[in-house]
What we know:
The structure holds three protein chains of three kinds. By secondary structure, chain A is an alpha/beta fold. Chain A has helices spanning about 50-60, 85-95, 110-120, 125-140, 155-165, 185-200, 210-220; strands at about 5-15, 20-35, 40-45, 65-70, 75-80, 95-100, 175, 205-210, 220-225. In chain A, α3 crosses α4 (about 125-140) and α3 packs parallel to α5 (about 155-165). By secondary structure, chain B is α/β, with parallel strands linked by helices. Chain B has ten helices and ten strands. In chain B, the strands form two sheets. Chain B has a six-stranded mixed β-sheet with strand order 6-7-8-3-9-10, with helices on both faces. In chain B, strands 2-1-4-5 form a four-stranded antiparallel β-sheet. Chain C is α/β, with parallel strands linked by helices. Chain C has seven helices and twelve strands. In chain C, the strands form three sheets. Chain C has a seven-stranded mixed β-sheet. Chain C has a three-stranded antiparallel β-sheet with strand order 7-6-10. Chain C is globular, with a radius of gyration of 20 Å. Chains in contact: A-B, B-C. The interface of A and B includes residues 61 and 92 of A.
Amino acid sequence: MTMRLCLSGVGKTFTMHLQGGVAIPVLHGVELAVAEGECVALTGPSGAGKSTVLRMIYGNYVTDEGQILVVDGERIVDMAAAAPRRVLDLRRRTISYVSQFLRAVPRVAAIDVVSEPLRALGTSAADARDRAATLLQRLNLPERLWTLPPATFSGGEQQRVNIARGLIAEHPILILDEPTASLDAQNRDVVVELINERKKAGVAMLGIFHDADVRDAVCDRSVDIRAFA
Amino acid sequence: MPHHTSLDNDTPLLRASGVSRFYGSRIGCHDVSFELWPGEVLAIVGESGSGKTTLLNCLSGRLTPTAGVVEYRMRDGTVRGIFSMSEAERRFLARTDWGFVHQDARDGLRMTVSAGGNVGERLMAVGARNYGAIRGEALDWLERVEIAADRVDDRPDTFSGGMRQRLQIARNLVTGPRLVFMDEPTSGLDVSVQARLLDLLRGLVADLGLAAIVVTHDLAVARMISHRLMVMRGGEVIETGLTDQVLDDPRSAYAQLLVASVLQP
Amino acid sequence: MTERDTSSLPSPSWGGAGGGARSERPRAERKGDAVRPAAPTAPSPTLPHEGGGSGHADTAYNFAYLDEQTKRMIRRAILKGIAIPGYQVPFASREMPMPYGWGTGGVQVTAAILGPDDTLKVIDQGSDDTTNAVAIRGFFARTAGVTTTTSTQDATVIQTRHRIPERTLTENQVLVFQVPIPEPLRFLEPRETETRKMHALEEYGIMHVKLYEDIARHGHIATTYAYPVLVDGRYVMDPSPIPKFDNPKMNRSDALMLFGAGREQRIYAIPPHTDVKSLDFEDHPFEVQRFEEPCALCGSTGVYLDEIVTDDKGGRMFVCSDSDLCEEQRAGQPVDA
């Protein structure tokens, strides 16, 4: 099995300057590896630092200690130390992140929100929209919503837009933060199906899945974050 | 950002090294260094008086720094210090390869000249002498910034604030610049107008692969259009990093305060 | 009155060095209808040299009114202007005994270049007999004692407001323009510091913006006077409010052309045989006005015509703007009835 993502000795402490500079250590010595075609679940209670790990991998949070190695073709990049433009480049080509909430841009149609990662890779607008339409169709997002900005959508609709956006570019590493939290059973099954398809295609995945059924259906193993408190 | 295949053979478009500007004994900005890469949008945030506009003016050659160097990679690949080139060269650069979008459109537009003339001026300045072609180009750009073609002969003083800003953007982009400086491009606009402008800017920057340096006091604006963020206070750079990282995981006391101070709708 | 001792004056035309070497030709040798400016229209009282033939001036004045230092200063500005065709040279404009807007700039240039044996013609809108022209002619007749004329070909110095004579000027002639606003870029850029920089750096895109605006608004370049030109491929210049009809006459002219702006304190020049190109667009080339009918008085065609309202019932006629040419035509070949 080829490793795609490897965390070693990763630690994170939040310093709250607005609260008298109190330092809150959240994680320490995180050791974690995800291989090609593998899906790993992070488990543990709320506030244990599961999302923090995901955000550090995506470069959204600063990593204070350790290394986050990402295999990028021939090269191995340490996300914990990479320059901003390197992180942006990896986000464009290698890592996707499906966050819990969609940060919607005003005025941009749902279908364009979804196609943007492909556009950033140089795909033509028409082709990117075709792929986006296929995904949105599978996720049962009503076609009348495609041309509307997602800001006014329901939570479940927004989440499906978010998932489609995360999957469309078919990056080799996928980070999932509660991808099915606000979905009904039918759409949850579609997402499980999509994730399993990606697994077969060799995508390395790390995620937080509160829904035990979903976790069982997609994950190969679980890592309890409390081990690194 | 545009589609780079390799980051390794790339060189920065603009490099600032130790840029300082003093007003007598008062600090405008102090010891600012960074690199800007092609296609990258850098937002400079901070409150009024933090030195962000002084820095922008130093970077764009409008104000001579007291100390420090600003280097720019020209279209032919040579790297030139913008304050070691002649004023003629610098002004030529500023009206061809650069753009400058002012906070107040009246500073960036000729208010007594039609929209078409405003857009066409840069073309005529670089030698365009065919009226039909210039007008065609102006109409094309008005469409791209969502100004109706039948307004081409109207003067910007008959335009709304949002239209003026969009006209200013068209006027700057018509020569295909590689770097655009923007000073609070959306402040003073209604929220809905602001959203439209930001969306337009985002699209143009991505489509044209523009690099941009945007001064704003609005963190939401920064989040929406920039890749990287630079937080300034008292003329000093307090924190820099990826935009979403600085906003979601601010490290310095000041950046935390700034993020915490944003009103949520 | 005494005979002017011209040898005691520096020759104004040639600057201070070795001044005064030119001898004065007897006025009697002048051909044409050179006149003493004691015509009834002259604003001044009977002039001291009336009826004389050898250039008597009112010696209460310096020659041509200005003192020698001032004339030298102006000549230096003129020489610099000639050396840098189309470039606006600042000069210390003096108070003249006439208001700004009446040609104080042109008068100072004329005063600086006039020699005792020059023959002066002054026109205003092409005409020799308008108030402004008559007054300035009288002014120099009195202060310099020079011969004046209405004949274009007899004049050595022609001061003009708003026209270039129809007759092609020669290398022995100097044309002096009165200029109200010397800065062609001011229409779009009011800051003088900025326009000077734009001239220095040849940033002239803005000039075409003005023409663009014309076409956008009127469908054609509607600027009909003070039409901007590029001099010697370098400086954009305002030719003063002459009709654009006259622009081609500046190109490679044999005569020296000097421009004086009194209020704005600028002098500029087009030396003889200099390229002067009117700005235009490829698809809207420069064109001069055309007149459908010949002059109603002399029958001339291809000349600039003025519209004259003849009665209160809408009657009007088009006649030569150049009054000298019109009279000459009528004298030589009577107009067909």
